[in-house]
Amino acid sequence: MLKNSELIAVLPAKDLGRAREYYRDKLGLEVAEETPGGLVYRMASGAAFLLYETSNAGTARNTQMCWTTADIEAEMAELRGRGVVFEEYDLPGLKTENGVATMDGERGSWFIDSEGNTLCLTQQT
């Protein structure tokens, strides 16, 4: 039954007002719905995510959400123009150049939102 259900990602925020401003000003996203549980954002693809307030925000060190794009450089340029800073990594199996890592079959870039969540862009190659 789950395969027929709507899926929504959930991200923590220490300060929901600050998060709303970041997602609007830096990522160009508007809140689609305000619920008692938080702020819902809906993508044109039908995907959605919820930002909810909790003191646990920013504690995860893993990628929490990723957008797939056809042109990672264009997306990064637009986001950089809005003030988003992309992470640079030099780890075993993961090295970025100008914010982009090339992996088997895909390219990826990561940034940290105002709440400490690690978000990414990915492009299939």
Characterise the protein shown here.
The protein has helices at residues 16-25, 72-81, and strands at 8-13, 33-35, 38-42, 48-53, 63-68, 90-91, 94-97, 100-103, 106-112, 118-124. The chain has 125 residues and is of the alpha+beta class. It has one domain (2-124): 2,3-Dihydroxybiphenyl 1,2-Dioxygenase, domain 1, CATH 3.10.180. The model has no long low-confidence stretch (mean pLDDT 96).
> What fold name goes in the CATH topology slot?
2,3-Dihydroxybiphenyl 1,2-Dioxygenase, domain 1
Task: Look at the structure and name the CATH superfamily.
Answer: 2,3-Dihydroxybiphenyl 1,2-Dioxygenase, domain 1
Order of helices and strands: EHEEEEHEEEEE
Specify the helix fraction band. 10-25%
Percent strand equals 35-45%
> In total, how many beta strands?
10
CATH class: Alpha Beta
State the secondary-structure class. Answer: alpha+beta
Radius of gyration: 15 Å
Head-to-tail CA distance between termini: 32 Å
CATH architecture: Roll
Task: Supply the number of helical segments.
Answer: 2
Pfam families: Glyoxalase (PF00903)
InterPro entries: Glyas_Bleomycin-R_OHBP_Dase (IPR029068), Glyas_Fos-R_dOase_dom (IPR004360), VOC_core (IPR037523)
